[in-house]
Specification:
Layout lengths: L1 E2 L8 E3 L1 E5 L3 E5 L5 E16 L5 E14 L13 H6 L1 E3 L4 E5 L3 E5 L2 E18 L5 E11 L5 H14 L10
Parallel strand pairs: 1-6
Antiparallel strand pairs: 2-5, 3-9, 4-5, 4-8, 5-6, 7-10, 9-10, 10-11
Length: 173
């Protein structure tokens, strides 16, 4: 399975229940700030399936962030745009240690799908949130655990065959 960046036309929206959505935790080496990031999924679309049951998933997701730093600043409750945060970056690459990165798991119509949020870069800004915690800008990626079991692939293939688009205009995985 792969994660596509945009929603396809003609995909199949799948029902799912989160099994676990743990925090990924990182510690900035420069100031000891603990940065917690959590991926939450709100939508899973099956965008296509090959004959072997492998295919593509599209996710609708959000990130939750939490920072706890020993270096608090002046609290600023004003909302900030992404552009304002990027413009306020004072340290483009903050060295960090990975404290914890675990797999999120979802029961997607009887198939367990695993996703992992992985931080690729942390940047520090000169901004502070409403309680004085420093704001960081985080780049991240989502990794999906391959669905390799023949029974799980057969379930996805059956869903696609029964509910997916039909005919020559149907998307291919």
């Amino acid at each position: 399975m792969t994660i596509l960046p945009q929603a396809p036309t003609g995909g199949v929206e799948l029902s799912f229940d989160p099994i676990r959505e743990p925090w990924s935790i990182y510690k900035a080496k420069t100031d000891g700030a603990i940065i917690k990031v959590r991926l939450t999924v709100g939508r899973i679309i099956l965008a296509g399936v090959k004959e072997d049951g492998s295919g593509h998933l599209v996710l609708g997701s959000n990130l939750l962030f939490s920072v706890t730093s020993p270096n608090k600043g002046q609290p600023d409750p004003s909302p900030k745009t992404n552009e304002q945060i990027i413009a306020a970056i004072v340290e483009r690459t903050v060295p960090y240690d990975t404290v914890k990165e675990e797999w999120n798991e979802y029961d997607v119509e009887g198939v367990v799908v695993g996703l992992k949020l992985v931080i690729t870069n942390i940047a520090k800004t000169n901004l502070f949130d409403d309680i004085g915690q420093p704001l960081y800008y985080v780049n991240w990626s989502t990794v999906i655990r391959p669905i390799t079991g023949p029974e799980d692939r057969a379930k996805l293939k059956k869903i696609w065959d029964e509910r997916g688009p039909k005919g020559p205009e149907a998307p291919k995985a």
